[in-house]
């Protein structure tokens, strides 16, 4: 799918896809003067995809390096002229979901559509995904489309002080403990709205049965109180942990997990949905992005996900005057270095050590790159030079 300068709807590869300025019937034509008439072609070869440059005047780059031919996988970044393309291995959509719109990954589009569908119901929702993937954004969208008029109240369960967690959630009455004034808790603050329990896997174990009862009975008893108070609160929870594993280890209650997972949504990290990087970044920074900067942003692995994107956007807004566009030189040096022809040399790491790391990380090239202090693209180039098939380690 092209993502710069003008996003276009996703294009299926099918039996093959020609891409260029005048790609012809069944191809993908882009209004980019630096593209050749037919710039490159992608065809299925066995279980993978192969890109062949069609003698394009300005050449083709895959994951930051010039190529005549290259094998593509999910997340590969193709640059032709001033256009960028993200390769996505797209699973069938959830029932009732439309194809993703231009400039949005299938994963995020379908997650949003599913959330919009479940929002008007009373179902408790659990959003699962790595830290910084945008779980709270998705929870806010659910609240905003739910029709509930109360507030959206987020609470970080990992930051709740163990001794005050019950009081924070359920409130307390005057005199409940030394010096205590009466105070409603977060559940009461979310009355008529949504309580978002972020990192719910870190909720103290002794508090879990109390929360379970509140969800079941739709009532809370403030600390020190002698009667229950009815509540009307929608619960949305999120976690980066495996809650079934926490249940098996005795750290999380199975009955609470069942209540929290009346509906589940999976939100992978940015490395798994590269098509979301540029739309999110441009929304955060408030400026258009040059094609070189866009390529660097797409090539980055984003280990801290949307949180990392936000940090870089904050830095650029701090020093930019709000005019013009984001250039490559404005990005961190390590990101600038990913755009170009530099490679991780074979002499820097032995084939045996590379194979050991691939086995250790189960073929996850991003983790191998972090282990050797390099980039994913440079590790891929080294793998090609050594004729190592990363798929054999997965």
How would you characterize the overall build of this protein?
This protein is α/β, with parallel strands linked by helices. The chain has helices spanning 106-118, 135-144, 165-170, 186-189, 208-217, 243-248, 254-260, 277-285, 291-299, 305-319, 333-337, 351-360, 365-371, 376-385; strands at residues 2-4, 17-20, 28-29, 40-45, 48-53, 60-62, 65-67, 69-72, 77-80, 83-86, 125-128, 152-156, 194-198, 219-220, 229-230, 234-239, 263-266. A hairpin with a 2-residue loop joins β6 and β7. α8 runs parallel beside α10 (305-319). The relative contact order is 0.11. The model has no long low-confidence stretch (mean pLDDT 85).
Name the CATH superfamily classification of the largest domain. Answer: P-loop containing nucleotide triphosphate hydrolases
Number of helices: 14
CATH-level-2 architecture of the largest domain: 3-Layer(aba) Sandwich
Determine the fraction of residues in helical runs and give it as a percent range. 25-40%
Beginning-to-end CA distance, first to last residue: 26 Å
Principal-axes shape call: elongated
Biggest beta sheet attributes: 5 strands, antiparallel
Give the helix/strand class. alpha/beta
- Average pLDDT figure: 85
Relative strand content: 15-25%
Uncertain residue segments: none
Specify Rg, calculated over alpha carbons.
25 Å
Taken together, the total number of domains comes to: 4
Q: Can you identify the CATH class of the largest domain? A: Alpha Beta
Sequence of strands across the biggest β-sheet:
1-10-9-6-7
> What is the name of the CATH topology of the largest domain?
Rossmann fold
Question: Tally of extended strands?
Answer: 17
